[in-house]
Amino acid sequence: MSAQDAAGPPIEMGVKVLLSALALLALWFVVIWVIGLRRAAKRTGAVEQGSETGYCNPIQMVIGVVTDFFDTLGIGSYATTTALFKLLRQVPDRLIPGTLTVGHFLPTVLQAYIFTQAVKVDPTTLILMILGAVGGAYLGARYVAGFPRRAIQVGMGVALFVAATILCIRQFADVSSQTGTVGLTGTTLAIAVGCNFVLGAFMTIGVGLYAPCMILVSFLGMNTDTAFPIMMGSCAFLMPVAGARFISANSYSPRAALGLAIGGVPAVWFAAKLFKDMDLNSVKWLVVGIAACTSVAMLRSAYLSKRSVSA
Q1: CB-based burial of residue 83 (10 Å sphere; 0-12 exposed, 13-18 middle, 19+ buried)?
Q2: DSSP secondary structure of 64-115
């Protein structure tokens, strides 16, 4: 997979319109986010959010650098970010889904711009799958933002277990072939859009879309490389839709989200420019282990909180 072929495929009009819409959406979200950050900075005396206001710390920026670097290579950032947040105790469990969605948005926008112009994909397939993911995220964020802490822990624990299983399947499945179509039609296109709708909803509880989306396009007969603009474009469009809801519901950590964005944007550019072909087999197995361990940690936290309430 090369994110920087010398010339790259010609950009069709539909893709140009898509990228223009993405630029406007990104601008709108930045305005919403700035307003949210100002409100967070002015809040005082909020027990749950008191330690989450102010400026990001270096640890949170480093997390953004590491997770978005590997995210650009197709590994995904949600499982790794969640694991680091848990390990380093940076964000309360209840706020993790919203923090992931808000903080990783700007790096994902840059990914979408780079890979949509570097990889040829049918515009109709690309646009419809993106719309499916956005619809799923809109409905998902509507309910997830108000979930209690234990429900978030259970949901993310199960979601991360599923993600680890999918990543493991990818390691044994032949998903590296560059043969296949660059678009879908008819029933297969409808299946792809429907599945991306579900994946978009799952994004709002903290499970990444990248790994399952790559498996989806491969199983439907598409060139594996086409997964990059599809999954990155889907996330770039759905994240502000879901993120705006998390911001309005105050269900994220403003400080940690800002750290992810500051560290993530240059990491994406560096990864896309520096690496053409890279053997990620060992890294992917590491991510499988991280996702599985984090899943166990989340479910254990949910179990202990239930015992505490019962006691």
Answers
A1: buried
A2: HHHHHHHHHTTS-SHHHHHHHHHHHT-S-GGGHHHHHHHHTHHHHHHHHHHH
Nearest C-alpha neighbor of 285 from the set 164, 193, 128, 149: 164
Tokens for 287, please give them.
């991510």
Q: Quote the pTM value.
A: 0.74
Which tokens go with 120?
């040829």
> In this structure, what DSSP letter does residue 7 have?
S
Question: Is residue 216 within a helix (H) or strand (E), and if so which, with residue range?
Answer: helix 210-219
Structure tokens at 201: 């909803």
Cα separation, 69 vs 160, whole angstroms: 20
Spell out the domain ranges in the chain.
13-310
| Torsion sign, CA atoms 284, 202, 302, 48 | positive
Cβ–Cβ < 8 Å for 164, 278: no
pLDDT score for 211: 73
Mean pLDDT of 5-18: 63
> How big is the CA angle at 298 (ends 293 and 301), to the nearest 5 degrees?
125
Can you list the alpha helix ranges (DSSP code H) found in 122-185?
123-144, 149-172
What's the confidence (pLDDT) of residue 145?
Answer: 57
**Cα 168 to Cα 296: distance, rounded to the nearest angstrom:** 16
* Residue 51 to residues 54, 89, 307, Cα–Cα distance (Å): 8, 12, 26
- 256 and 91 Cβ atoms separated by less than 8 Å: yes
> 159: closest CA among 125, 204, 111?
204
Backbone angles phi, psi at 10, to 5 degrees: -65, 140
Q: What are the tens digits of pLDDT across the range 234-278?
A: 999 988 888 888 898 888 998 899 999 999 999 999 888 776 555
Residues 197, 181: Cα–Cα separation, whole Å: 21
**Secondary element (H or E) of residue 296:** helix 281-310
